[in-house]
Design brief:
By secondary structure, the chain is of the alpha+beta class. The chain has three domains: 115 residues, 2-Layer Sandwich (Beta-Lactamase), CATH 3.30.450; 73 residues, Helix Hairpins (Orthogonal Bundle), CATH 1.10.287; 166 residues, Histidine kinase-like ATPase, C-terminal domain (Heat Shock Protein 90, 2-Layer Sandwich), CATH 3.30.565. The protein is built from twelve helices and 15 strands. The strands form four sheets. The chain has a six-stranded antiparallel beta sheet. It has a five-stranded mixed beta sheet with strand order 8-12-13-15-14. Strands 7-11 form a two-stranded antiparallel sheet.
């Protein structure tokens, strides 16, 4: 007989057993850190998780179930005002049964007056709409710190790089220096590298200024067709040197006997932004085309918009790369593109410039068969253009008289 009794382990409480799919779904929903709102086809809330209740500060789930989601999910524009339905991407996605992915905006939290930065997505599940949103405050703080570092470093490094480029230019100038052919080749390579580095630092500065709002568009009513033609014509020498065939507006002119009438198309734009957009798109068309390839620039429009296109018959872009080419620092990596210089920021800056003017940019391409970039801008009617020009001229005359 043993003098000692074996100590029995304490009973362990059994884990709750989830017996139904609905209960399991509720358990998962309640554990998600992102805010989740589920609505019916009419936009009435049927379910909301605790994270959404906490972020929206709307009391508890019972207070909002059965209400229109817009009563609590108030999306703001860049000016801090609640967006009207016609401009609200979330409302448009829910009403039209279209998915929305990671739309960055801010929410107006009425109870405390907070402005909560969020990324919102909409998933369509039959008659139900699943709206998810996550707090991106920390992400924005990290992005801001990173942008500040890039901006400071780029600004500091741009000055010595400019000095290097200047001295190399002097060394290559026959009037200021005498060098043999081999030394000239070395210096030309160094000069090209310094120019590339300077362009990279300038692109980095432009990117950070756009991201933090230090660059704002100076919007003016402008005739777009003639301006785009002028910008495209400036690239003619580069296309000729690269032996690339170039044409402008080959199908946009209105044939009036021997003369071709230039169509007038008006929009409110920043002309410096448009110049950068055209420079980037035309430079891409040149870099990714071969001798005897073709490049076309076209401007067409309807009552609502003007569409500028830059088309080439160059090497094209793979479908995998198309999904990423407007991202910061992204460059296609294949045997054809590795030898082509670039900062990986040109198309990112182009997209930012287009969207800052209220436009859209997209691309169509097939690998090996060329690429077409499209830029759409909201169009002004001739009457509205003339009205705005008259107002601007009157204001200018008033200021001159007042001075």
């Amino acid at each position: 007989m043993s003098w000692f009794k074996h100590k029995q382990p304490a009973p362990v409480a059994a884990a709750p057993v989830v017996n139904s799919g609905a209960a399991l779904a509720e358990l998962v929903l309640n554990s998600i850190k992102e805010g989740v709102i589920i609505t019916d086809a009419a936009g009435v809330i049927s379910s909301i998780n605790p994270a959404a209740v906490a972020m929206l500060e709307c009391g508890n789930a019972a207070d909002v179930v059965g209400l229109d989601y817009r009563l609590h999910l108030k999306i703001e524009n860049k000016g801090g005002q609640v967006m009207p339905d016609a401009e609200n991407p979330v409302y448009i996605a829910v009403a039209s049964n279209q998915a929305l992915n990671d739309f960055k905006t801010s929410l107006a939290v009425e109870r405390t007056g907070k402005h909560l930065p969020v990324a919102i997505s909409v998933i369509i599940a039959g008659n139900n709409k699943i709206i998810t949103f996550r707090d991106i405050t920390k992400d924005l703080e990290e992005d801001s710190a990173q942008a500040e570092f890039i901006s400071t470093a780029s600004h500091e490094m741009r000055t010595p790089v400019a000095s290097i480029e200047g001295y190399l230019s002097l060394a290559l100038n026959a009037q200021t220096a005498t060098i043999d052919e081999r030394a000239r080749q070395y210096l030309e390579s160094a000069h090209a590298a310094s120019k590339h580095l300077g362009k990279l630092f300038q692109d980095l500065l432009d990117t950070t200024k756009l991201d933090d709002g230090r660059i704002k568009p100076e919007m003016m009513p402008t005739e777009v067709y003639g301006l785009v033609k002028q910008m495209a014509d400036q690239f003619m020498p580069q296309f000729l040197q690269a032996q690339i065939k170039f044409d402008f507006g080959s199908s946009t002119g209105v044939d009036m006997g021997e003369a071709k009438v230039q169509p007038a198309m008006y929009a409110v734009i920043d002309t410096n932004f448009l110049q950068e957009i055209m420079n980037n798109l035309l430079d891409n068309a040149r870099k990714y085309s071969m001798p005897d390839d073709n490049v076309w620039v076209n401007v067409v429009g309807d009552e609502r918009q003007i569409v500028i296109s830059v088309k080439d018959t160059g090497m094209g872009i793979s479908q995998d790369d198309i999904q990423h080419i407007f991202q910061k620092f992204y460059r296609a990596d294949n045997s054809d593109t590795r030898t082509i210089g670039g900062t990986g920021l040109g198309l990112y800056i182009t997209k930012q410039r287009v969207e800052a003017m209220g436009g859209k940019i997209w691309v169509e391409s097939t690998l090996g068969s060329g690429t077409t970039f499209y830029v759409s801008l909201p169009r002004l009617s001739t009457e509205e253009y003339n009205r705005r020009i008259t107002v601007m001229n009157n204001q200018k005359q008033f200021m001159e008289v007042k001075a």
